[in-house]
Amino acid sequence: MKRIKNIWPGKSHPLGATWDGAGVNFALFSENATRVELCFFDDMENSQEVFRIQLTEYTDQVWHVYLPEVRPGQLYGYRVYGPYEPNAGYRFNSAKLLLDPYAKAISGEIKWSNALFGYRIGDQKADLSRDDSDTASYLPKSVVVDQAFSWSNDVYPRTSWHKTLIYELHVKGFTARHPDVPEELRGTYAALAIPEVIDYLHSLKITAIELMPVHHFIHDKYLVDRGLSNYWGYNSIGFFAPMSQYSSNGVRGQQVEEFKTMVKALHREGIEVILDVVYNHTAEGNHLGPTLSFRGIDNTSYYRLVPGNGRYYMDYTGTGNTLNMQHPRVLQLIMDSLRYWVLEMHVDGFRFDLASALARELHEVDRLASFFDIIHQDPVLSQVKLIAEPWDLGEGGYQVGNFPVLWAEWNGRYRDTVRRFWRGDTGQVGDLAYRLTGSSDLYGKNGRRPYASINFITAHDGFSLSDLVSYNQKHNEANGEGNQDGTDEDFSWNCGVEGQTDDPLVLILRARQQRNFLATLFLSQGVPMLLAGDEIGRTQKGNNNAYCQDNEISWTDWNLDKPRRDLLQFTRYIIDIAYNHPVLRRRNFFQGRKIRGLDIKDLTWFRPDGNEMAEPDWKNQDTHCFGLRLNGDAIEEVDERGDPIRDDTLLILINAYHEQIPFILPSRPETEHWNLILDTRAETGVRQYQPKNENEPYELMGRSLALFCRRKERK
After folding, report:
1. Which of 44, 177, 383, 650 has most Cβ atoms within 10 angstroms of its Cβ?
2. CATH superfamily label, 16-143
3. How confident is residue 672, by pLDDT bands cut at 50, 70 and 90?
4. Residue 490: which pLDDT band, with cuts at 50, 70 and 90?
């Protein structure tokens, strides 16, 4: 670029680099800096600065300048001056080029070098010593972006929570091997927008895709040194910038346009986009981590430091640091980021990684923390889908059921209870009853509804569904950590034979157990979340922590044999059932009593002998088989026009015992004639059944689920 001649004062707001059609305003917050310089670069290959200017304007702790000669696509970074006093929490080092926290795009990948660390590697005083090596050649660059985009008539789908089906997927892994995606588009935002991929989502009745992190992230040095990468992306460094590696069209701002095009295409098909966001920490790690952005801009403002010893970081996340939610500018950063993704990028909601860390005002978890108060009063963010991962790694961090109204939660209790029950553990039936009916014990106390519960059997973190029924122990050897990483999943079930096998009986049992899990998920009240690939038996060969495996261990395999095709057909079938029956997607909790003078209750539990369950049955540790009748005439809800909602009455029979159990169907001959519509003993769920007489018990196979329907009268 040519030498900049015109330098105007600019404004302290908005933060970041803002193109207004005539020039660019640059604004950077730093409360404790003594000097700030803005550096420009022509390209990533030649990382020599072509121009540098000092920012002399300082308003409300924001350094700012306006440059009428700068255009979109320009690469830039900052150098920030101030004291290097780690014991006091100050880690300023002007030798280190820094990314703009508000950068709307980031170009290039990090090139790991000792220079990226603010201290001298190997020095006896460790991080107390300062390193003056320049990092411009190693750090990605911030990019000036033109936000103009033709959204035309884009409409947020705004699917009601009780009608939502979430599909958790990885942008790259989902399409990296997809045969219908052109090779040059595989693993990109553009791939998710092609008709073949959208048609597949429609075939599963997906209403929302939940993308694993797409905020620009860094591949950790210790992984790169081992030939691995941070595949999952829970290592953010740019809260406004879409990850450039998922762009098929360039990284000088093109990634922003490609992301918007993807959202627009999905919205056109009625599919929402939810982002998995990581605001609890950054990629800079602990006191021995690199200096890439926040640490060098204003370490004491951005991070939670140990009281009385600013050299060290409070770590509630297991990553080395925790963002300082007590600082108003950090709160502003997160809120500005969230609003940006909704208003400029048109996303429909967020899943907050380790959300309990965001609630820590001091040390305790406070569910009425400033972060939640601010979101609740925000006219934009209070209207989108908000999902919490309701735990972190700090003391008291497990907060399932404790988040406030407006928030849904990943229900870890649901996952654990369903796994335990189908494994055959004793004493699970009481807890399972709550999980099947929306977890009112967790969400019914503070005004929330069944859809506050995001139900899931598997997620990205842990075994896939196929591996859950095929392995008893994790096999993470490929991660290079001696199989010590990842959690020990105590609730798996593998028929006594681990891993690959040709034993037909074992394969039959495994396939049925997968169907049991899927049927349970979609017949439960609450919002189901399906992990991408579980519907086609995706395996990671026993790796339950594939965070660093950007390869075929993690990528979805679309080469389907008959068992995997059958599983897909079953999944589509059970989803069809679930979304054609309002009684399975209630907006209110069951009452467990007769409704509006009806002669049967809205919900009734049965023993295999056809009688209602009593208190001793719930307390019986060996209860593994029961039935649940959902009365379709007692939903007590109305549709959009105000008309009462009516549905068929459904009867769910569940048997986690290893042997077949005859089940007498609850019957009043004048009104109830049950039709079998699903049985997990069948590969696709469809099984013909014609009882010889009304009193004939249904032979419920060991470890299976059956669903019966009594059709409501049609007028």
Report:
1. 650
2. Immunoglobulins (2.60.40.10)
3. low
4. low
Beta bridge partners of residue 349, listed in sequence order: 274, 385
In order, the DSSP letters of 276-292 are EE--S--TT-STTS--S
Catalytic residue among 389, 535, 647, 679: 389
- Give dist(CA 296, CA 93) in Å, integer: 6
- pLDDT tens track for 63-109: 999 999 999 999 999 999 999 999 999 999 999 999 999 999 999 99
Q: Which residues contact 481 (CB under 8 A, 6 or more apart)?
A: none
- What lies within 8 Å, CB to CB, of 91 at 6+ separation is 84, 118, 291, 295, 296, 299
Q: What is the pLDDT of residue 45?
A: 67
Helix (H) or strand (E) segment spanning residue 630: strand 625-630
In whole angstroms, give the CA distance from residue 358 to residue 278. 10
Closest alpha carbon to 181 in 193, 169, 165, 170: 193
Query: What class is the 591-715 domain?
Result: mainly beta
Q: Which of 353, 602, 633, 648 does the annotation list as catalytic? A: 353
Between 32-36, 44-48, 114-118, 316-320, the lowest mean confidence (pLDDT) is in 44-48
Distance, CA of 397 to CA of 314 (rounded, Å) = 14
Nearest to 75 by CA among 33, 150, 137, 15: 137
**Can you give the pLDDT at residue 668?**
60
What does the block give as tokens for 268?
């056109």
CB 299 within 8 A of CB 321: no
Using left for φ > 0, alpha for ψ between -120 and 50, and beta otherwise, residue 308 falls in left
Task: Give residue limits of the domains in the chain.
Answer: 16-143, 591-715
Distances (CA, A) of 620 to 427, 433, 616, 617: 7, 14, 6, 5
pLDDT digit string, tens, across residues 624-661: 999 999 999 998 888 888 899 999 999 999 999 999 99
| Residue 389 bears catalytic tag | yes
Q: Where are the alpha helices (DSSP H) in 181-231?
A: 195-203, 221-224
- The tokens of 1 are what? 């670029």
Q: How confident is the model at residue 209 (pLDDT cuts 50, 70, 90)?
A: very high
Both tokens of residue 192?
A: 């998710």
Domain 16-143 and domain 591-715 have a common topology: yes
What residue type is 648 in one-letter code? D
383: phi then psi, degrees, rounded to nearest 5? -105, 0
Say whether 652 sits in a helix, a strand or coil: strand
pTM (2 d.p.): 0.97
Q: What is the pLDDT of residues 125-179, one digit of tens each?
A: 789 999 999 999 999 999 999 999 999 999 999 999 999 999 999 999 999 999 9
Which residues have CB under 8 Å from 172's CB, separation 6+? 187, 188, 231, 245, 246, 550, 555
What pLDDT, on the 0 to 100 scale, is given for residue 530?
99
